[in-house]
């Protein structure tokens, strides 16, 4: 079913699928880190060019697409609930999980990390080591939960700017101009328009590494400028896109164009980053860096919009399985990282081909995380906290839907 056949007030199942898929792909992304030919992670095994290529492809679009959807849903919630309801909801479902679940997740990750350290040290932890710097706002280890912190920053910016914009736009003239600009920016040229600020930010940073692209802001409470620019542009575009919901049909119909763009520019960015043998060094020459940044910035938004258009085109119908996985994806992403690392450490001690280990880590992490969601979250108060509604067991057996349409 195409999104063009659905009513604008219907739940956007295609975008739900994209949001859930982006989070679930995090398991594959983080599992692949142990098996790249260039060491990139705590566990580093003899890897494969396939693993590094898979990492690059997923990292290229995943979180940019997520932030486009996050911006769209943020505007939708603001319109439906008002600023007070929006604040209450985001504090409960974004700030709450970050504040309450970061500590156990970090503790579990640290245990897995120390396990690997003990293995490397002959079976016991070293008694001496370099002194650790004190934890500050600049080195705070957010781990993979960084996206919750960045979302809170974007929500705060939206709320701060909302009041003065509303005061200046009592007649609605400014809003109509913004809507026209959003329409003008939406078309085959969108990857170029949206990718330009990101390209400038990457070219501006001397230490930028083309293979890494957007550096993950997982350390420190002050996100790096490249991540703020790239994800901020995506969030803003999604936010404005919800004001022009009709443009979703335009994006959907452009899926072949965006897909060709994504494959072409994505391949170019991959080559410039070292190809299947990642080059984890910055580009010293400013001209070469600017060229690589231009290609990568274009590729990021071409691939994110291709993913969005494909989901709108082919996944806009209701599917109980996709809906269940979309609901589960939030919890799975929150808890997956320590499980991934622990399974990587287990497989590190076993003789097997890299792809067997890789598959075991992915399947094992997904199975453990999904089982914990079904048994501990979906039908308990935790499910109500994270997903907005607890599903009683009897209703789950009857196959009822999990969430309200917001």
From TrEMBL:
Pfam families: Acyl_transf_3. Keywords: Acyltransferase, Membrane, Transferase, Transmembrane, Transmembrane helix. The chain crosses the membrane at residues 21-42, 54-74, 94-115, 146-168, 189-209, 221-241, 253-273, 293-316, 328-348, 354-376. InterPro entries: Acyl_transf_3_dom, Glucan_succinyl_AcylTrfase. GO terms for molecular function: acyltransferase activity. The keyword Transmembrane applies. Residues 13-373 form the Acyltransferase domain. This is Acyltransferase family protein.
């Amino acid at each position: 079913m195409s999104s063009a056949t659905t009513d604008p007030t219907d739940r956007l199942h295609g975008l739900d699928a994209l949001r859930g898929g982006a989070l679930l792909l995090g398991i594959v992304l983080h599992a692949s880190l142990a098996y790249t030919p260039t060491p990139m992670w705590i566990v580093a095994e003899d890897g494969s060019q396939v693993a590094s290529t898979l990492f690059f492809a997923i990292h290229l679009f995943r979180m940019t697409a997520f932030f486009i959807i996050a911006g769209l849903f943020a505007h939708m919630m603001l319109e439906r609930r008002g600023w007070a309801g929006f604040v209450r909801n985001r504090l409960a479902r974004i700030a709450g999980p970050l504040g309450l679940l970061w500590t156990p997740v970090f503790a579990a990750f640290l245990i897995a990390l120390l396990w690997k350290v003990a293995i490397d040290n002959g079976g016991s932890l070293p008694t001496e080591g370099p002194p650790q710097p004190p934890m500050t706002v600049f080195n705070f280890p957010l781990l993979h939960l960084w996206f919750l912190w960045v979302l809170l920053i974007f929500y705060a910016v939206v709320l701060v700017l909302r009041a003065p914009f509303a005061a200046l736009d009592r007649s609605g003239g400014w809003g109509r101009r913004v809507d026209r600009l959003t329409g003008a920016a939406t078309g085959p040229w969108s990857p170029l328009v949206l990718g330009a600020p990101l390209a400038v930010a990457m070219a501006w940073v001397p230490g930028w590494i083309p293979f890494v692209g957007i550096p993950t802001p997982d350390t420190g409470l002050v996100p790096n400028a490249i991540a703020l620019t790239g994800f901020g542009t995506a969030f803003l575009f999604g936010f404005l896109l919800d004001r022009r919901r009709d443009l979703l049909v335009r994006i959907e119909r452009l899926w072949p164009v965006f897909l060709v763009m994504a494959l072409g520019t994505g391949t170019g960015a991959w080559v410039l980053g070292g190809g299947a043998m990642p080059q984890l060094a910055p580009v010293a020459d400013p001209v070469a860096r600017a060229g690589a940044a231009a290609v990568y910035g274009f590729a990021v938004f071409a691939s994110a919009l291709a993913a969005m258009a494909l989901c709108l085109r082919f996944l806009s119908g209701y599917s109980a399985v996709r809906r269940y996985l979309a609901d589960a994806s939030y919890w799975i992403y929150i808890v997956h990282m320590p499980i991934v690392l622990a399974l990587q450490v287990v497989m590190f001690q076993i003789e097997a081909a890299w792809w067997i280990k890789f598959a075991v880590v992915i399947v094992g992490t997904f199975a453990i995380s999904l089982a914990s969601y079904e048994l501990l979250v979906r039908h308990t108060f935790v499910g109500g906290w994270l997903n907005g509604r607890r599903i009683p067991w009897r209703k789950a057996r009857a196959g009822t839907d999990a969430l309200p349409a917001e």
